[in-house]
Amino acid sequence: MKGVYRLTNTLIMRGGGRPDAWITYRSYDGKVLITPRTSMRAALIQVRAPAAYLEFRGLTFDGGGTNAYEAYQIEYHTHHVRVLNNVISNMSAAGIAVTTADYVTFTGNRIYRFGDGVGWSSGISFNSGDGAFWFDNAAGFHSVIADNIVTGGIDNSDHHSDGNGIIADLGGNIPPVLIADNLVYENGGRCIHSLGVQHVWVINNTCYMNGLDSRLGTTGEITSFNSQDIHLINNVAVAWTGRRPYAIEGGSSVALDHNVGFDGIASAVPGDVSADPSRLLTRDPGFAAPIAVDPAADGQWKSALPPSAVGERFRPQPSSVLRRWGVDPRAQPGVTKDLLPTLETVLGRDLAGQRRWLGGRFSVGAYDS
Question: Less Cβ around it within 10 Å: N or C end of the chain?
Answer without folding.
Answer: N
